[in-house]
């Protein structure tokens, strides 16, 4: 593998110049690492260094071949860059360098540092151009012989890198002289591997930069390039893709990475493989075959880059119209690699990494174990593969913080049942660069996604449909019928077949989702016991309220009349000649009235235990069981002005106190947030000015705009008014949205938080910052203006320019924040602004007013009207489309969450024209949906499921919502129309009140039309019944029987009035509406 570096290349850490050389050695880094070299050598001399008394490392001449040498790695690690054709000898008393004159001048600066840090003398032997260095080598060997022998051994031991064969005349002469010197030789490869294994801060930084470049090249160049080739059906060879990718890596600016090109290189030529020929070894190469992307094909892409000689690697597998075997194998491989990454933590044995991956494969797909690669990767750094850190089952070394690994796993030589020979054999590969940290690990290449939905592509659905159409149309073409009829029948068949095929594919996918949902829910609810869904409201705790701590605080007595003490928040009432104080929080209501004798009355009702809706804590009443409570008092006065004043004072004081206590209670439930770290003077914060905030700050006075700034670990919004400030920590942000003004009046950024924060006095999980792109203008007088009016045209153009300007300001802010979130210290938060997809939006009523609801890649949102709607898609269990029917103009959408403690969210009155689009969107996002003609009552349903989840799964899980299944037997039994009825409910005993309450709060016009039609049909039936009733009544009168009961007469009256208005219970049997 490649070490393609020139002698004159800049050092890894150059900070000063020496003599006439353009580059210099970083003496601080040299001192620290020289000490680390001697420390490791002395501590592990017998374990890793072969008991060597002297270390001799010879670096070969530069080469155009891609290779990794430990001698070159030692040069870069210790001195900052490579010294070709240089011999270094490290001893207890001396360090010798044999090199050319130019290198000697550069090395002069290390003499002083080596003496101060290690106490050794640096001796530099200069080899002239016309010399072979033999004399200098003899001098170095004599110095080695003069070194004292340790442990009483007969001869000194010289350690060298045995796997590196001598190259060039200089190194060949040195190798011969060592062999003839009488010195014992040993291999020090393991010692150098252990020395390089743990990286310092500067090395980690270089690796992170290299990894970021590699991952972004895969994301921003390789993936779009391959997608374009497939979309345009181009013929491009693997070698051509390799060349283009290599050029992109060597010019980081083109892929959006701000790194200097002179510090960047490739680790190996990029690898592209497809068409059944796969080689998962790192030494694999891209051949001249064309990229194969037909159905069931697999494409493997692997790229690696270096920054200041430090390596990184990433590999991804992309599936084109994958079959079941390929999809399953990839999902198993992804889980295995994630398990291996999670096992990386300090103190763990290296073998445990591979064992964790094997355990996943054995559990998920035992048949794939023989095809798994024999290791989970290797260490990576200055070398692409660090010897001694291979992640296999036999390596017992212990992981340490600072180690870096290329976690690479794959399946080799898998077989799929396809007719195409190029798709029968396939392999899979995933690789990431991972850094071991003190508290776990950091995936440095996480920018390149690898989830199944991101790597699986489907391109040939239309082609398959066309082939099926052609096959079905062939008999029609051959038949001897009229040409025009033939064309018409073909067109009709093409349309019908296309729709059926699409619908069938959706049904198959939904059936698979239903199976997965039932299995997932069975695992999730396995530990849920009865009553889990109850007790949702936590008990409220209240502190004992005291108005006066002692008698001395009471105000001096005045007249025996009601007094309000604003300072102590109390009212004093004259009772039996004494002024008795009550804290205003104990007052429930206060009112006044006046009688005919001009006497005024004031009535005060107190909060006491046992009364409905009492705010008195139950614990307080238990603590004071013997107490006597005053429930109500009334006073009479002839001064109406005083009574009105007292009532107003009490109400105002009570309102202020209750607001303060409510805010205090809200703040008590907040999760403590970290302190905001402000950007320093050197780093200017990212700023967006003149913004309004929702929810607004409380208080009176004119509302002011403010500025939103992005600092080190969060946002800060503040206005010019003191106290109006909100801090939002990055780690508290669950979702971030940017919605430019298109058909709305505002451009906004919106944050949906994990934990509540306080905005003013309001507790919220949603904070929005927005700007109105145009002013609300109303023309006085109602005069119409012509569309050709120059003023009108100019005003519209000005509004468009203003809107575009504001949208661009927000877009720039969002882009800069996304770059901030992409930095290594924030990448683990996985934050990125999401933008709503307007083309997938639909109208509905999520709360009380109609709104335009828009999906994003991760959520379903409505961010214009308040209250806001933000629903995370991966928290959804199922979606039920309710009131779906052929004659309906609207339908409802009920969202059931995986957490059954959450209430079901309903979006009502969605136009039926949006039904197909919503179905397609739900299916695309892997959300299982059902259809029903009723509004279901979800609380008892969820309660029944949590009480006995096993029975729910055994009875088919969510399939009770399947409209096709429930309608199939509707002619045989009416029970099929009842939907899912909880086992502890009695459907036959539902009262009329419950029936009326269970109806949808938002009734559509179709409901009314349907009911009208049913009433009309009922009238037709009622006429015949009335005639029978009248005949029976006349017969009874003739017989003298007038003893009908009151219920019978009422029933006859209701029947008789059925012509003008149908009674609630007189309609034809309908499906009950559950809510």
From TrEMBL:
Gene Ontology CC: FACT complex
Positions of transmembrane segments: none
Domain FACT complex subunit SPT16 N-terminal lobe: 25-192
Region annotation (Disordered) ranges: 458-479, 493-520, 966-1075
Compositionally biased tracts (Basic and acidic residues): 496-520, 1020-1040
SMART domains for the chain: FACT-Spt16_Nlob, Rtt106, SPT16
Keyword set, alphabetical order: Chromosome, Coiled coil, DNA damage, DNA repair, DNA replication, Nucleus, Transcription, Transcription regulation
BP GO annotations: DNA repair; DNA replication
InterPro entries: Creatin/AminoP/Spt16_N (IPR029149), Creatinase/aminopeptidase-like (IPR036005), FACT-SPT16_Nlobe (IPR029148), Fact-SPT16_PH (IPR056595), FACT_SPT16_C (IPR048969), FACT_SPT16_M (IPR013953), Pept_M24 (IPR000994), PH-like_dom_sf (IPR011993)
Biased composition range(s): Acidic residues: 460-469, 985-1019
SUPFAM superfamilies, per the entry: Creatinase/aminopeptidase (SSF55920)
Record has DNA damage as a keyword: yes
Residue ranges occupied by any Histone chaperone RTT106/FACT complex subunit SPT16-like middle domain in the UniProt entry: 842-932
Top-level division of the source organism's lineage: Eukaryota
Primary localisation category: nucleus
Pfam families named among the record's database cross-references: FACT-Spt16_Nlob (PF14826), Peptidase_M24 (PF00557), PH_SPT16 (PF24824), Rttp106-like_middle (PF08512), SPT16 (PF08644), SPT16_C (PF21091)
CDD domains: CDC68-like
All residue ranges annotated as the FACT complex subunit SPT16 middle domain in the record: 562-717
Protein's job: Component of the FACT complex, a general chromatin factor that acts to reorganize nucleosomes. The FACT complex is involved in multiple processes that require DNA as a template such as mRNA elongation, DNA replication and DNA repair. During transcription elongation the FACT complex acts as a histone chaperone that both destabilizes and restores nucleosomal structure.
Family recorded in the similarity comment: Belongs to the peptidase M24 family. SPT16 subfamily.
Complexes and interactors: Component of the FACT complex, a stable heterodimer of SPT16 and SSRP.
Protein name: FACT complex subunit
Lineage of the species this protein comes from: Eukaryota, Viridiplantae, Streptophyta, Embryophyta, Tracheophyta
């Amino acid at each position: 593998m490649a070490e393609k570096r020139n002698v004159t290349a800049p050092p890894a850490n150059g900070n000063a110049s020496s003599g006439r050389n353009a580059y210099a050695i970083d003496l601080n880094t040299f001192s620290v690492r020289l000490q680390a070299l001697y420390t490791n050598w002395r501590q592990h001399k017998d374990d890793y260094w072969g008991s060597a008394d002297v270390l001799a490392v010879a670096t070969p001449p530069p080469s155009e071949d891609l290779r990794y040498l430990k001698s070159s790695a030692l040069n870069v690690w210790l001195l900052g860059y490579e010294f070709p054709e240089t011999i270094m000898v490290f001893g207890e008393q001396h360090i010798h360098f044999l090199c050319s004159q130019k290198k000697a001048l550069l090395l002069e600066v290390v003499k002083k540092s080596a003496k101060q840090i290690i106490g050794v003398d640096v001796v530099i032997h200069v080899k002239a151009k016309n010399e072979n260095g033999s004399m200098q080598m003899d001098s170095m060997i004599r110095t080695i012989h003069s070194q004292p022998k340790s442990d009483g051994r007969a001869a000194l031991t010289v350690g060298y890198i045995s796997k590196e064969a001598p190259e060039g005349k200089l190194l060949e002469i040195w190798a011969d002289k060592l062999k003839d010197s009488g010195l014992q030789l040993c291999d020090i490869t393991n010692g150098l591997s252990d020395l390089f294994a743990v990286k310092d801060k500067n090395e980690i930084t270089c690796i992170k930069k290299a990894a970021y470049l590699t991952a972004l090249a895969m994301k921003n160049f390789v993936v779009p390039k391959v997608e374009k080739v497939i979309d345009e059906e181009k013929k491009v060879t693997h070698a051509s893709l390799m060349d283009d990718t290599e050029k992109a890596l060597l010019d980081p600016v083109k892929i959006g990475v701000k790194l200097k090109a002179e510090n960047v290189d490739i680790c190996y030529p990029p690898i592209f493989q497809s068409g059944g020929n796969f080689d998962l070894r790192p030494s694999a190469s891209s051949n001249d075959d064309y990229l194969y992307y037909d159905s069931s094909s697999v494409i493997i892409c692997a790229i690696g880059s270096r920054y200041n000689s430090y390596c990184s690697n990433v590999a991804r597998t992309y599936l084109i119209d994958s079959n079941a075997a390929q999809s399953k194998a990839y999902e198993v491989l992804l889980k295995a690699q994630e398990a291996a990454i999670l096992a990386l933590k300090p103190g763990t044995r290296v073998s445990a990494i591979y064992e964790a991956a094997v355990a996943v494969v054995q559990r998920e797909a035992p048949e794939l174990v023989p095809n798994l690669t024999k290791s989970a990767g290797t260490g990576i750094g200055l070398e692409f593969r660090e010897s001694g850190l291979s992640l296999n089952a036999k390596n017992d070394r212990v992981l340490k913080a600072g180690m870096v690994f290329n976690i690479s796993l794959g399946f080799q030589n898998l077989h799929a049942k396809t007719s195409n020979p190029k798709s029968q054999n396939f392999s899979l590969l995933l690789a990431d660069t991972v850094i071991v940290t003190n508290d776990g690990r950091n995936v440095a290449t996480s920018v390149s996604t690898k989830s199944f939905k991101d790597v699986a592509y489907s391109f040939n659905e239309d082609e398959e449909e066309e082939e099926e159409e052609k096959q079905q149309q062939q008999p029609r073409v051959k038949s001897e019928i009229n040409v025009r009829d033939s064309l018409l029948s073909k067109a009709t068949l093409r349309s019908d077949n296309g729709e059926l095929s699409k619908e069938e594919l959706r049904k198959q996918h939904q059936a698979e989702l239903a199976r997965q949902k039932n299995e997932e829910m069975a695992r999730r609810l396995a530990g849920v016991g009865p009553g889990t869904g109850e007790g949702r409201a936590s008990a409220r705790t209240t502190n004992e309220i005291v108005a006066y701590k002692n008698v001395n605080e009471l105000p001096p007595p005045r007249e025996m009349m009601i007094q309000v003490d604003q300072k102590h928040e109390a009212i004093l009432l004259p009772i039996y000649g004494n002024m008795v104080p009550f804290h205003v929080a104990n007052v429930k209501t206060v009112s006044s009235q006046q009688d005919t004798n001009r006497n005024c009355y004031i009535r005060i009702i107190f909060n006491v235990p046992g009364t409905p809706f009492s705010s008195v804590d139950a614990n307080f009443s238990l603590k004071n069981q013997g107490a006597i409570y005053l429930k109500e008092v009334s006073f009479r006065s002839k001064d109406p002005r005083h009574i009105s004043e007292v009532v107003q004072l009490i109400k105002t004081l009570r309102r202020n106190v209750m607001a303060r206590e409510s805010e205090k209670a809200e703040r008590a439930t907040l999760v403590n947030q970290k302190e905001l770290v402000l950007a320093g003077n050197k780093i200017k914060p990212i700023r967006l000015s003149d913004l309004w905030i929702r929810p607004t700050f409380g208080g009176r006075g004119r509302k002011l705009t403010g500025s939103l700034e992005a600092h080190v670990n969060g946002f800060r919004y503040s206005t010019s008014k003191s106290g109006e400030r909100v801090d939002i920590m990055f780690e508290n942000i669950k979702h971030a949205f940017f919605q430019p003004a298109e058909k709305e009046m505002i451009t906004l950024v919106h944050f949906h938080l994990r934990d509540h924060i306080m905005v003013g006095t309001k507790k919220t999980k949603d904070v929005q910052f927005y700007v109105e792109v145009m002013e609300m203008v109303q023309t006085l007088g109602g005069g119409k203006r012509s569309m050709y009016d120059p003023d009108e045209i100019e005003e519209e153009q000005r509004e468009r320019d203003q809107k575009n300007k504001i949208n661009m300001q927000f877009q720039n802010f969002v882009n800069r924040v996304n770059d901030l979130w992409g930095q290594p210290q924030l990448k683990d938060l996985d934050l990125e602004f999401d933008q709503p997809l307007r083309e997938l939006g639909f109208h509905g009523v999520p709360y009380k007013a109609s709104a335009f609801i828009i999906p994003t890649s991760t959520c379903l949102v409505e961010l214009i009207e308040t209250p806001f709607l933000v629903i995370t898609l991966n928290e959804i269990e199922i979606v039920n489309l309710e009131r779906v029917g052929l004659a309906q103009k609207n339908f409802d959408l009920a969202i059931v969450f995986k957490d059954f403690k959450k209430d079901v969210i309903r979006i009502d009155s969605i136009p039926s024209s949006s039904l197909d689009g919503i179905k397609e969107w739900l299916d695309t996002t892997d959300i299982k949906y059902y259809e029903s003609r009723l509004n279901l009552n979800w609380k008892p349903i969820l309660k029944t499921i949590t009480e006995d989840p096993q029975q729910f799964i055994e009875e088919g899980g969510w399939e009770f919502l399947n409209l096709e299944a429930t309608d199939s037997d509707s002619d045989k039994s009416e029970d099929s129309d009842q939907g899912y009825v909880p086992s502890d409910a009695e459907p036959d005993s539902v009262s009329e009140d419950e029936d009326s309450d269970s109806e949808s709060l938002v009734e559509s016009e179709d409901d009314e039309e349907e009911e009208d039609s049913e009433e009309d049909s009922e009238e037709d039936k009622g006429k015949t019944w009335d005639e029978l009733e009248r005949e029976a009544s006349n017969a009874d009168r003739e017989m003298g029987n007038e003893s009908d009961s009151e219920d019978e007469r009422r029933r006859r009256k209701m029947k008789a009035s059925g012509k003008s208005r149908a009674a609630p219970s007189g309609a034809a049997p309908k499906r009950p509406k559950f809510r």
